Amino acid sequence: MSSVLQPGLAVLAVVLGTLVAFVLFVPFVIVSYRRRGSADGWWVGGWLITAVYLAALVCYTLLPLPSSGQYVCRGVQLSLGHDLRHLLASGPSVGGLMRSMVVWQLALNVALFVPLGVLLRVRHSAGVVVAAIGGLGVSVLIELTQLTGVWGLYPCAYRVFDVDDLTTNTLGAIIGSLAAIPFISRGAQSDRTAPTPVTALRRLTGMLCDATLVFLAPQGLSLMFFMVVAGLWPGSGRAETLAADPRVTWLIWCVPLAVQLVFVLWRGRTFGEWAVLLRSRPADARPAWLARGLRFVAGSGGFGLLAMLDAASVSGTISGAAGESADGWRAWLLPAAWAFAIASLIGVWTTRDRRGLAAAVAGLRIEDQRASAAGEHASRQAGDASASREHTEETR
């Protein structure tokens, strides 16, 4: 109960949930566009809420973890309604019930799982039965984690395994599922194979996926690589040695850029545009190889190259020592990279059909990749209808 009332855990849940949502943003976008056909603002907001809620479940049910000096082994409570029956047996007044920590504990355990039932129905069209099973399953996982001392991290349980938590959590998920019924749209489901407009939000989503690939992915790979090396060989200095190795720097940055280059040269679109189901079409008569090359250099490829050169200048892999080269190169590389990014963002609103700066320079237009498939399907339907009419007239 004390953990539920700690506001610091709420802040931690928001921070952790937002971080998880950001790390998994690209897979979320890819899956959403292929399962739903789109990922609008409400759907992305729901993803963020889901991540924050799951982080809140972890924080409120498992944290704070006790230190060795504060550790006390807890027991198991398998009697259904034990604390409530004990409270009612004492004959409390209505005011006493309202002030009772037992009642508040039960109410908050119910409230904690109401959002789970709502999310299951709103985002996954799951009914009451699925909500009940999901609530019970998540609650059992939490209680077992507590019972096992975080799966062996502690020698025994630091919180009580309480069967009442299972029932109240499951009840909360059921209540949430029922409460969400009035807010579910009863309209026809959208066709995920039908093309949708190329909006600014869709273009920005794709650009964020591109930035994740060519800029954030190398940063994350570098951090994880050096953490692993430092953990495997602590105090050996290998992490520092590898950080100064030009081959490591170039490899970490060149691999994501090579992936983006393959996307652009092979199909004429970036990784981010593939993620949001967009493609490019020639807007003039210039050769495809020239248009795609310009597209890479004037787009996320150019931004990634500038960021890579900045990283190389900091580590001293371009020329001279790290400190000497940083003053000469980083002074303009990093500002140029961010100016490049800002110009690309502005280009989404200032170019025709939201095609963006890189596509405009390359003479390309951007469209939904399902546009031709939908047109071909409509043409086939029209052809079938025409053939049917001709056959009917012939039989007459």
Notes on the protein architecture:
The chain is mostly helical. Helices cover 71% and strands 4% of the residues. It is built from 18 helices and four strands. It has a two-stranded parallel sheet. Strands 3-4 form a two-stranded antiparallel ribbon. Mean pLDDT is 80; it is low at 319-326 and 374-387.
Distance between the termini: 81 Å
In oligomeric terms, what are we looking at?
single chain
Strands of the biggest beta sheet: in what spatial order? Answer: 1-2
Order of helices and strands: HHHEHHHHHEHHHHHEHHHHEH
Helix percentage:
over 70%
Rg: 28 Å
Helix count equals 18
**Structural class of the secondary structure composition?**
mainly alpha
The unreliable regions are 319-326, 374-387
- Number-wise, the strands total 4
Strand content: under 5%
Shape: flat
